[in-house]
Structure formats: C-alpha cells, structure tokens
Amino acid sequence: MLSTSEKKAVDVQKTATLFDLLNKYHGKIVIGLVLIGVFLRLFHYYDNRSFWIDELYLNGNLIRLGFLELVTSPMDYEQKAPLGYLWAVKFAVILFGEGERALRLFSLLCGLGSLLIFVPVAKYFLKPWAALVAIGILAMGEPFIYHSTEAKQYSAELFAAVLALHLFIKFQHSFKISSLLLWGVSGGILVWFSYSSIFILAGIAIVVSFNILFKRDWGNLFLKLIPFTIWLFSFSLVYFFFLRKFEDSGWLKNFFEVIYDAYMPMPPSSFKDLRWFAYAYYMLLERNLGMLTKFGHHIKDYSIIQTFFRMPYLPILLEIIAIVVLFKRNKYFLALLAAPILLTLLASGFKFYPFYERFILFLAPLFIILIAYGAERVAAAFGPRKSAIAATILFLLLLAPPLWNAVRFTVSPIYLYKKEYNREALLYVNDRYKKGDAVFVYWNMNHAYKYYKDAYNLKYTALGREDIRSQASSKSDYYSKVLKQFGDLKGKKRLWLVQNPLLRNNIGQYPGRDPKWYYEPNFFPGRALENQVSKLGAIPVDSFQRESIDVKLYSLPNN
Hints:
By secondary structure, the protein is mostly helical. The chain is globular, with a radius of gyration of 27 Å. The chain has helices spanning 4-24, 26-47, 53-62, 67-72, 83-96, 100-125, 128-140, 142-148, 154-171, 177-193, 197-215, 218-241, 250-260, 271-287, 304-309, 313-329, 331-349, 364-381, 383-411, 422-432, 446-455, 475-485, 525-534; strands at residues 438-441, 463-464, 494-499, 539-546, 549-555. The mean pLDDT is 92. Helix 21 (446-455) links the parallel strand 1 and strand 2 (463-464). It starts with a helix and ends with a strand. Strands 2-1-3-5-4 form a 5-stranded mixed sheet, sandwiched between helices.
C-alpha cells in the first residue's frame, strides 16, 4: 500500500499531468472551445425562439423602412441603433426575408466573429492556460450566446470591442503611415456599427498617448495622432447626424434611472450609493459574463446555499488580485484594460450612458482578461511545484458555471435569458381563427402584432391596438373609450383578447406617472380589461397563457 505522502505525490502528478495536457494540446483545446461556442450559437439560432419585446420594438421598423428611411425617418417606439447595424440587418432582410432568423443573422455573424478574434486577443494578454479560461468563458457564457442570437445591436458592440483590441495589438508598434491610416479607418468604421466602441477607442487613444508622452517620443506621438484623429472625426460625424438627436429623450434617461438604476452615483455619498457598485458588479458577473451558476430565473429566488454555490466571490477576488499585480508590474496593460471601463462609468455618472446589463456587454472582454490574469498570478504564486495544481483547479472552477449554464439552457431552451412567447401566442390565435371572429389586441401587445402581422401574414386584422390612456380623464372614462375600441360586434360569435398583463409603461412615457391610477399597486389592468369584456356578455372558452402573455377566447352572446 502507498503511504500518505506517496498518495499525495500521485495526486500531484495526476493534476500536473492534466495541467501539462492543457499546455501540450493548447491549440487543439482552443479549437475545441471555439467549436463548442460555435455549436451553442448555431443551436440557439436555429432553435429560433420568439422575439422578445425589445426585438419587436426595433425589428418592426426594419422590415417596414427602406435604407434611406432608416437614415431620415424616426422609427416607431423611439428606437435607436447605429446606422451600420441597421443597414446590415436590412440587407439580410432583403436577401432572406422578414423572419426572425434573417433579422438575427448579422448578430450571429458578429457573435462568431467575436469568438474567433478574441482568441489572439486572449493569447496576447495571457499565458496559454489562462487564455483557455478566457476563451472558454466567452465561448460558453450565456450572455454571449444569447446576444449572438438576438436581433439587437449588442452582439455587434461586443464584436466591435474585441476587434478594437485586436487592431490595437496589431498596429500599436507600427510606424508606417499606411498601417496607421488603416488602423484609423478601421476604428472609424467601428463607431458606425457600435456607438459604445468609442469608449474602447478613446481608452486606447488616451492610454497610448500618455504612455508616449511619458517617454517623450514626440515623433511617435505625432504618428499615433493619425488614427486617433480619424476616430475622433468619424465619431463627430456620428454624433452630429445621429447621437445629438437622442439628447431630447428625457423619458429614456428617467426610465434608466427609475427602472434600471443604471447611472453611477456621482459622487457616492451614502451606503446606498456604495451598494450600487456592489450590485452593478454582481449583475455584471451574471448578465454580462455568465460566470455565476444559475439555478432559477431570478437572483431573488436563490437561497443562501445556492448563492454560495453560484461562486461570485472567486471572479471578484481574482479581479482584485489582477488589478493589484498589474498596478505593480504593468501599469500600461492595466490602464488599457481599465480606461474604457472608467470612461463608461464616468459617462454613466453624468447620465450620458447606462451602466447596466446589455448596454455594457462590450466591456465583457476586458473583465474576462482581468479575471483570467488574476487566476494566472494566483497559480504562479504557489511556486513551480504546486502551480500546476492551482492552475488546474482554477481552470475547472472558473469554467464550471458557464459550462453548467450552457448545458442547462441548451437541454431546456426555456431557461435561456429573456424567453418570451409572443409568436406562439399570436399564432395560437391565427391557427384557431375562424371567419367572423373578432380579435382585440390591447395596446401593450401592439408591437408584437405589428411585426408578426407583416412577417407571418396573419389572417386576422386586429381591433384596438392604440394606447388611449392620455385621452381619458378618469378610470371610468378610459374604459368606456376602450369599449368603443371593440367597435360593433354584431354578427360576431367569438372574441379573442390578446394582452400583456405585466406591461404598464409604453415607450416614450415616464414610468409610473400619467395616468397615476393605472400604476396603483392594487390595480391590475389585465383583470380590469377582462371585466370590461365580461360586460359584453362574453364567456371564456379557451386560453393561451404565459408569464407576460395572456390570450383568451370568448364566446359572444347571439346578436
């Protein structure tokens, strides 16, 4: 039998062997992780879930407006997105039709591009095994998979951020004017596809410029001003033609502040303000990095034990270690990684940009690199003999949550983030619709009806749809006007009622304001609407219900 010391030696040898495999087969493991990431993105792309509310707001415009109108005409529901993204998606619509997959195609390509280009970026900043950690997080993390199959601009923003880092690595030491012009034009194009890319580009420009200034290398500074000036000029055009128009969206700033708490307190002056930073980072770990193990739908549902096994403490600790070590060893790299984050926080403090969830997905590569670098330094601190053990354990611990989540929401796609059933609800009506039926779509489902009516050629034309709350002087006046929206039901035998029982705010309206009675906690608009239908003598005979969808079929009395 082996002695205790001999058993420990065997265990160390096994772990070291696994670590050696990570290094020996590094290239093949990278390919394996990338292929896993590609599979997960393609799987959920072809799973073709229904659009959720934000996708419906934007894409109803994209199938309706032409290329020129996307430049000159305001979009319904006050939607805004970079022109490059809008035109790319519109081109896909022309080629492949108005379905969800066509509208998600550009996001998918950006998601795949981010994964591929992040490989050399991770290898530049990290040692081989730590680069595997970073690549694995991006390959399997739920936010990256989800946004790669979402018909919104956030996957393009992630791609722009990764590409900006890659361009920095490629051209940072260049003195050739042609290369610097290429760097400048490439970065200048990025801001037309991703507004947030300016934070990455500005961070790079500031850090590189100050680094050169400290070295007093005036010739190099003059050359680097070539790409930086092109970026500034390109972003100035974007701001002049598009972004300055958004400054009038006071309701949107109010929405971000009241509903999302998306603006950094500045200056922080209370415990509540300090708690904002803790909560923002915790949510970033889940919603932007996918590094917290998920057991349910919402963090408020988790027990203390479940919260412990979500392992938020590990990436937090590793990132702190990375910041401390880089501050001592390589302030330049630390500044490059931190500057875009600090600029985004500063913009948030001045209420120019929300520091919240999908809006800061583009910062994820920076946080991933910091966490992986922290793991790299912790492993190295154990010395030559035990560093292999530490590296192997950290590798497994850091990739366990995204792997668990990926398996969970792939085996059961209902667990994927922001799952809604708008298409299923409207097609449920469409498949059971009979000649002579009346279909009433409440205003808070009109965005879904408008898209699916055009994209899927629904055979019914809905009543209602308009939000008339601002026209009413009281609750009773409002519902009397709603009843008029039903029109003349004479000769109709059945009535379909389609509504979202949870949605109370309409785009462009300040949350919780007019009419105030509509937002009272003891008032339930969905139930009130059904009560109005019952006044028509209608009897419910069928239904389709999900968390944010309520479809009911009523039998009407003989007219």
